[in-house]
Amino acid sequence: MEEKLVKAEIVKEVESEKRADGVEQQKAEVVEQVPAPGTLSFAFLVHEQTKATLRTSRTLIILRGLPGSGKSLLARAIADSYQGLCTVCCADDHGVKPESPEASAEGYKAFDDAVVACCSVGTSAQVIVVDDTNHTHDQLARLGEVAEQHRLVAMFLEPRTEWSRDLPQLAKKTQRGLQEAQIQAMKVPLEETSLPLFFGWFLLPSIQDKVRCTSLDFLKTLDTLEAFKKHLPDFTVEAEKEVDLEQYFQANALHCTTKFCDYGKAEGAKEYADKPFHQLSRWLVSYNPAAVKELYGSVFELSLSALFVTPRTVGARVSLSEDQLTLWPADAEKEVVSVVPAATTLPAGSRAHITLGCAEGVEQLQTGIDLLEILALQQAGQEGELVEEMELGSLSYYGKGRWLLSLREPISAQACFSSLYGPKKADAKKDGDKKKKQKCTIL
Ligand code: 2AM
């Protein structure tokens, strides 16, 4: 609809230019501005519920793509759609030349400062658009870090123009006067980072706070229960010592992973990203049936139905709706069958969870395994020992330090379907060491 309006204006302009001199040249310039069909079909531009939510939440839209691929046109379309609520930070305005990064060090520094200033609390912008090539892993990881530090949900987007990776066309379209070889040099790292570390639903900041408070309340209460004290040796070898659960678990940003891709190295990553739709969503534009691509950037309402604690992890169980299962990888449960043999017999979506904390030295991946183990026991008819009816729901014990609180009222959590680029492995290790030295807290 919006796309059609833009088109109509452009056509009028072209017709009026026909009466003037130099028709051909001006016509070409005007046509350049027409968004090609389908190029603006992003969820956050067409999906009404998503648009309404993003107007009241803070989002960092990170554009990426080769020079001439249509980033600036997309940035303009976003600014039009979120008028008065959007700031576009454009690398060009800071003297950045992506084809010569060494010569652009100062420009990149100034640009980074500008992006950070835009993301800082106190600015009115709800939607901040970063208009740069962002073709390297370092750039993506840095912007993901800025988003996390400033409590923004990040999205990473490439223009959907047909020529977005077509070197001869890009060389013609870009205003930078670049050779194909220069664009090719950027295309290599861009393609290497086509797939993220993982896809998932990222909780909006306000709901993150609510989930954190609820899980903290739960841990505080659990810590004081006689039944928990009785099973303390599950959590510590020094049976005499008390365990402060709030200190025991390490924190992380709240999300529900759908597919761990490891930048394309994980099995099935590419197939997942291209996974076709099985059911038509109400607002789906039918020409492109890839679910991940179509739903990327849209807001969902997740239902958190239980909280669980084990000596290794604390998490929230996510009960996925049929629509949400469209984004669930077919092999998510099977992937961990070597550790939880019953995983193959559990329904799709059983592993869906949010990691709320991990004990020191435990990988986040463990949370889903811990949840599947509890569900496998339930499936085998071991309902767990009902320990207490708490205000939040029923608390059951499943042995070996495994506790499950079935929430009386599931928590409804708004979450954006997006992706994340983490620091490179060497940098991640450094960050991990830094975190270990800090006081260990949950959330
Ligand atoms: P989580 O979903 O249980 O929190 C980055 O490591 C993210 O991907 C984490 O959130 C992690 O766990 C999730 N993840 C899922 N499968 C993974 C795997 N095979 N290896 C590492 N992390 C994985």
Features of this protein?
disordered N terminus; about 450 residues; binds adenosine-2'-monophosphate; 2 domains; methylation; elongated; alpha+beta; 4-stranded parallel sheet; prenylation; Rossmann fold; 2',3'-cyclic nucleotide 3'-phosphodiesterase fold; disordered C terminus; 9-stranded antiparallel sheet; 2',3'-cyclic-nucleotide 3'-phosphodiesterase; 17 helices
How would you describe what is shown here?
With 443 residues, the protein is of the alpha+beta class. The protein folds into two domains: 43-194, Rossmann fold (3-Layer(aba) Sandwich), CATH 3.40.50; 199-422, 2',3'-cyclic nucleotide 3'-phosphodiesterase fold (Alpha-Beta Complex), CATH 3.90.1740. 37% of the residues lie in helices and 20% in strands. It has helices at residues 2-17, 23-32, 43-46, 48-54, 71-81, 105-119, 137-149, 167-173, 180-192, 205-224, 226-230, 245-248, 269-273, 291-295, 322-325, 366-379, 425-437; strands at residues 59-63, 86-90, 127-131, 153-157, 198-203, 249-250, 255-260, 299-309, 313-319, 353-359, 385-389, 393-397, 403-420. The strands form two sheets. Strands 5, 6, 7, 8, 9, 10, 11, 12 and 13 form a nine-stranded antiparallel beta sheet that branches. Strands 2-3-1-4 form a four-stranded parallel beta sheet, sandwiched between helices. A hairpin with a 5-residue loop joins strand 12 (393-397) and strand 13 (403-420). The chain is elongated. Residues 1-32, 279-288 and 433-443 have low confidence and may be disordered. Bound molecules: adenosine-2'-monophosphate. Adenosine-2'-monophosphate binds at residues 197-198, 257, 260, 355, 364-365, 367-368. Adenosine-2'-monophosphate binds next to strand 7 and helix 16. Exists as monomers and homodimers.
